[in-house]
Design goal:
Layout (H helix, E strand, L loop, with lengths): L2 E3 L6 E3 L1 E4 L12 H13 L4 E3 L7 H9 L7 E6 L4 H15 L4 E6 L5 H6 L1 H12 L3 E8 L2 H8 L6 E4 L13 H13 L3 E4 L12 H9 L6 E5 L3 H11 L6 H8 L5 E3 L8 H5 L5 E4 L2 E5 L9 H5 L5 E3 L1
Parallel strand pairs: 3-4, 3-10, 4-5, 5-6, 6-7, 7-8, 8-9, 9-10
Antiparallel strand pairs: 1-2, 11-14, 12-13
Helix pairs in contact: 1-2, 1-9, 3-5, 6-7, 9-10
């Protein structure tokens, strides 16, 4: 496993980051111990970086995983939407309490869009710096799906870490093209920021092209790490091999491919109908303003709906 330093911080992270969204209540909703065992498996194989968020509801999984493994170099990144000092204080205390940690390695402002939204979160950001001085946070940053968000982070002295969306097809990127995002990431790296990518499989759209999609992200020299959602030990093993540039045994590929997949809609769906219009098999029904009904007899998991959603609210898991 390759390890890289995150920007100018003292944090050294594995090239593969365990993305904890997939195992939790918003997606697979695994029993806590089942999800914890998958995290432990990743840690035992050299992954030392876990990405989560208050929204994901996966603190309990991570806590359970760490209680049964004797490792002291695990780096946890979390994030929240707080924009006031009090709300950020509450979110930090919740993370410390539910993860049973003395400090949070990386705390991010969740889904920042531009310098304007960053300015709107200045009170929360300033509190994080107070918390860092008190030893409760080691590094501070933002996550973003937008090109402007990356640039804003690059140009803000209070931001050390940037967690951008990037994948080979540019799926989910807002405010620009894939080329624009790659240039913004390079610019942020040159400004000394530590970057780790997200959504390398485009919300599952690229699940039939896993190797090339992950290699695209892992091979970006401006990304210290890439967060990947993993829901089985087999996926962990395969992704570690890809991150390490090693061949994948065919039997492992077959076992990963055999895992059942499904489409998940976010509760934030606005019912625009773009997914239903794009579905070649008429498998999606928009009801009461929400695209929440999938006809499993018609859906072939082609992923076209994922790419069609303007808000990137549909995932294949």
């Amino acid at each position: 496993m390759e390890y890289n330093r995150l920007g100018q911080t003292d944090l050294v992270v594995s090239k593969l980051c365990f993305g904890a969204l997939t195992i939790g209540p918003l997606q697979r909703n695994m029993p806590i111990e089942v999800g914890a065992e998958i995290i432990r498996h990743a840690l035992s194989l050299g992954v030392n970086f876990i990405d989560t968020a208050e929204l994901y509801g996966t603190y309990s999984y991570i806590k359970a995983a760490l209680e049964k493994i004797n490792l002291d170099n695990i780096i946890i990144a979390t994030k929240c939407y707080a924009y006031t000092k009090e709300c950020m204080k509450d979110s930090l205390e919740k993370a410390l309490r539910e993860l049973k940690r003395d400090y949070i390695d990386i705390f991010l402002l969740h889904e920042q869009e531009s310098a304007l939204t960053l300015k709107g979160h200045e009170e929360a950001l300033d509190y994080l710096w107070e918390a860092k001085k008190a030893g409760l946070v080691r590094a501070i940053g933002l996550s973003t799906h937008t090109v402007e968000g990356v640039i804003a982070g690059a140009e803000c002295d209070k931001i050390e870490i940037i967690h951008p969306l990037v994948n080979k097809m540019g799926i989910g990127i807002k405010g620009g093209s894939l080329e624009d995002m790659l240039k913004a990431i390079e610019y942020a790296h040159k400004q000394g920021k530590g970057l780790y990518g997200m959504k390398p499989l485009g919300g599952g759209y690229l699940y039939n092209d896993v190797e090339d999609a992950l290699k695209f992200a892992f091979n970006n020299p401006n990304l210290a790490s890439v967060a990947v959602g993993m829901q089985s030990k087999e996926e962990v093993e395969m992704n570690i091999l890809i991150a390490s540039g090693k061949p994948i045994p065919q039997n492992l590929k077959n076992r990963v491919k055999a895992k059942p997949r499904k489409i998940v809609f976010s509760n934030s769906c606005e019912g625009c109908g773009s997914c239903a219009a794009r579905c070649p098999n008429q498998a999606i029904t928009v009801e009461t303003g929400l695209a929440q009904h999938i006809d499993s007899n018609k859906c072939v998991l082609c992923g076209y709906c994922v790419a069609a959603c303007p808000e990137f609210l549909i995932k294949i898991i």
